[in-house]
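go over this:
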Amino acid sequence: MKVEPYLFFEGRCEEALTFYRKALGAEVTMLMRYKDNPEPAAGAGCSVDGSTGPGPQPEMVMHASFNVGDTQVMASDGMGSGKPSFQGISLSLAPETETEAKRLFDALADGGQVQMPLGKTFFSPAFGMVADRFGVSWMVVVPQ
């Protein structure tokens, strides 16, 4: 069994996918928009009629998956209800070198907020914490 993160970007999923492609070298392996739902009557919140009312719009991302290294992350615009909230969780990156850690950390920090600058700790030659521009918390840690 695997545990895989699923992130809801509340209307900013496509922007996030573009950002992670550039910042982390992510590879998008699947993307389905609400308008592409093969079973639009399958359930509340999964059908769109082209209206401009509340809820998901046809072009919004219903489901996407992307790989960062060997890890699959799933994502969606959710219901597009407002600002995404990523609290109580961090995604952790384990680059092999300090140089790669700095590159990844700086890329994630672009437009985000550094929570703990990248630096040497008792458990790692390079560790730092950053919330990216979408509010997703990341820990970058080079193994000893």
